[in-house]
Design goal:
Number of helices: 6
Oligomer: single chain
Helix content: 25-40%
Shape: globular
Strand content: 15-25%
Largest sheet: 7 strands, mixed
Radius of gyration: 16 Å
Distance between the termini: 37 Å
Order of helices and strands: HEHEHEEHEHHEE
Structural class: alpha/beta
Number of strands: 7
Length: 205
């Protein structure tokens, strides 16, 4: 199956997959070890395996772990772990790239960001694509644009429904931005039209 820039096999598209490219583009050249946090159906893990020498995928949901293992079957450089990233005994600074899509809102914002940042090696990259709550006119304007874009893209590409657990976000976009700025100095925060934000941060080396 051909892997387009977004990271997913042709014929599979949704709001999360649409942002895979944001994270894959952030993977540093010569990446040795990468971590996919909340691997879900394993599509990002599969794409990441082409960009890192060794990839670890982790998810607390057994069904997601099983799905990821099926997706990456045959890839010898991928290890899939059924565990909680907050408590699994990863060594701090273990990974050149720590990536996460639609996972951070499942855990407490500050705790999650601190933990993911802790796992990044000096000079490595943390990349997060997440969901947040809409509050205020600025968020509503982004959502309006996103709703139009989503309808157009659904007609063009169809919509592939993932099997991962769904949780409503608790933190607002503004709260995410403020926490990221506090914990990850120099990070790049971007609000995307398709109901997502991204954070890219390089750990000082």
């Amino acid at each position: 199956m051909a892997i387009p820039r977004g990271g997913a096999p042709a014929g599979r598209w949704n709001h999360n997959i649409a942002h895979h490219g944001v994270l894959l583009d952030a993977v540093p050249p010569g990446c040795e070890r990468a971590l996919d946090v909340g691997c879900g159906d394993g599509l990002l893990t599969r794409a990441l395996a082409d960009r890192a020498r060794q990839v670890t995928a982790i998810d607390v949901d057994p069904a997601s772990v099983a799905s990821t293992r099926r997706e990456v079957d045959g890839l010898t450089n991928v290890t899939v772990i059924s565990a909680d990233v907050l408590t699994h005994p990863f060594e701090p600074g273990s990974f050149d790239a720590v990536l996460s899509v639609a996972t951070l809102h499942h855990i407490e914002l500050e705790v999650g960001l601190r933990r993911l940042a802790e796992l990044v090696a000096p000079g490595g990259v943390l990349g997060v694509v997440g969901l947040a709550r809409t509050r205020g006119l600025w968020d509503l304007a982004h959502d309006a644009v996103g709703a139009v874009e989503s309808r157009v893209l659904r007609r063009r590409r169809g919509y592939w429904e993932h099997s991962a657990a769904i949780v409503d976000p608790r933190s607002s976009y503004t709260e995410v931005l403020r926490m990221a700025a506090l914990l990850l100095p120099g990070c790049r925060y971007r609000r995307h039209p398709l109901f997502r934000y991204s954070i890219i941060w390089t750990r000082p080396g």
